[in-house]
Amino acid sequence: MSADGFVIIGRFQTFSKAHLEMIKKAMLLCPEGLILIGSAGNCGTERDPYSFYVRERVIRSVVPRSVVIRPLQDLTTPDDITTAWGDYILKQLKLLGCNPTLMVYGNEEARSGWFKKELITWAELIIPRDPHSCSATVLREAMAVNDYNTWFNGVPQECHRLYPELRELLLQIPYYQELSERKSK
Q1: Range of weakest confidence among 8-17, 34-43, 83-92
Q2: What does the DSSP assignment read for 59-107?
Q3: Which one, of 130, 110, 176, lies nearest residue 16 by Cα?
């Protein structure tokens, strides 16, 4: 990967149109980049149903090869916005040989709070959440109850063919099985 590309970090626990738009905006500024898939070691839970490999395959179906995709293991709890997490991210970027010129964030969290201000050597692009887009949580729940219209409208068209497989994986998780069964009654 180029040392001067963008970096986007996310769980992508249903890759959405909003995720794709974030990547497209980053690519307008830097044609090469790195996507770090967070919670890479987690899967099979309500919050993290899909493995890193499933998420990587979904994202790869819509992004060009100039974008590198790598796993990022968890260090802290999901609600932590700490500089310890930022230090960990910077260490991982260094191991990958990446010195980003652009960090891209969604504004649902104060992600720039991850980094000590004196260490920030990159530009930051904060992309507000589109009020008309569905969150990944809503998309997972729509899939569980087989509301394919909501799901299809919320994910990139290139991902539509993956619906049966992704739904099958999702329904292996008790929370989503229960949602599906409640809807069936």
Answers
A1: 83-92
A2: HHTTS-TTEEEEE----S-TT---HHHHHHHHHHHHHTT---SEEEEET
A3: 130
Number of H helices, E strands in the chain: 7, 5
Q: Give pLDDT, residue 107.
A: 66
Amino acid at 51: S
Which tokens go with 116? Answer: 């000590």
Better pLDDT: 54 or 183: 54
Q: Over the stretch 41-57, which tens digit does the pLDDT of each residue have?
A: 999 999 999 999 999 99
pTM recorded for the entire structure: 0.91
- Mean of the per-residue pLDDT values of the chain: 89
Distant-in-sequence contacts of 103-110, Cβ < 8 A, 24+ apart: 103/6, 103/7, 103/8, 104/6, 104/7, 104/8, 104/22, 104/25, 104/26, 106/10, 106/18, 106/22, 109/81, 110/81
* Domains, in order of start, for the chain: 6-130 (3.40.50.620)
Number of residues written out for the chain = 185
> Cβ(3)–Cβ(18) under 8 Å?
no
Tokens of 45: 């839970």
- For residue 52, give the amino acid letter: F
Confidence of residue 124 (pLDDT cuts 50, 70, 90): confident
